[in-house]
Amino acid sequence: MAIKPGIGRKSSNKNPPFLSHEFVIQNHADIVSCFAMIFVVGLMLQATNSLASIFIALHHNVTGADPSHENPQGEPYFYTSGWKDGCAVFFYTLICIIMHAILQEYALDKISKKLHLSKFKLSRFNESGQLVVFYALSFLWGFDVIVREQYLGNMAKLWEGFPDHPMVFLHKLFFVIQLAYYLHMLPELYFQKVKKDEQKPKIQHALGGFFLIATAYFLGFQRIALVLLTLHYFCEFIAHSLQLVNIFDKDEKFVKLRLVHNVVFILTRFATMVLAFLTLFYGINDVSQMKRSFMLATIFGLQGYLIFDFIWNVLRSKRERSAEHSERQAKAAAAKGEKTKKERKKESDLPEADQNAIQSGASQAVTGGKASKKTKVK
Description:
Layout: H1 21-26, H2 28-44, H3 49-56, E1 61-65, E2 75-79, H4 85-115, H5 119-148, H6 169-191, H7 196-218, H8 222-248, H9 257-283, H10 289-349, H11 352-377
Antiparallel strand pairs: 1-2
Helix pairs in contact: 2-3, 2-4, 4-5, 4-6, 5-6, 5-8, 6-7, 8-9, 9-10
């Protein structure tokens, strides 16, 4: 499954040299698939099963048992965090790279070919298209775990029994996939040939998301982190969905939908800060003041940054719209001036007798208009 040349790159009929940069970029999905298959095949062999299972299976279970004759139902498995999760994150990072390439080639590239977008809009379309799928799946996954664990009906479960918060299989796998997805964004900068001036915000997004989720996961705040991430992903899903709508909306018919995102954004930030404060300041007691302050400062600092960035983007979009409006007015005035100049030039090219006839006709029209006005007044 070779990946086609990215944005701004010309395709060539000649195959690039083996193991060259262009070769790796065009075939990175196949190369990564081969690496992932090594672990899968190792899981099937008895000699390498124990080593490969560290990368594929989830570990650090504290309870649980398989069905047996004595206990046909078995016992559900519950997990905690540990060092073996790093191996699982590495393997699922490979899976995220493969899924990214599949979505890009078989969905986004086919849609963008029919739209004939500019380079800027094509870049926005590819980025938002990938993130919309990730945010939608993550929100549905997180919401499913919240409903299963009954966090909605009993909010006290977010802090009861801390730090003894074992996770069910889906809860632990959720965090492993989250860490893997944010980690896979870094090699994607190379695979997608992102320009240097566009790399900084993407690197900040990837590293920021990875370290925030890893901190909450390994410090034992998995429950509150799950709820806050689910809220955040719902807001981001709406934001990138509206960005896709703006790409397709050439006549600006759906401009008012931005108000929906603004309201959801404000409510999400407010709910995030309230939940974090109640859980970390009032709910959890068996935690040091230093750790509590660190987590609260991190969450509130992130919310402040997101609010500042949101206000900055709103003001920038308003300036851009006003600049576009003034530019349109200037172009319309210039076109009108050119039209009057052309008309005057045509009149000047006519013979003198025709010019006098046009002027006398115009004066008669004015005189007739004045006379009609006087008649109406009488």
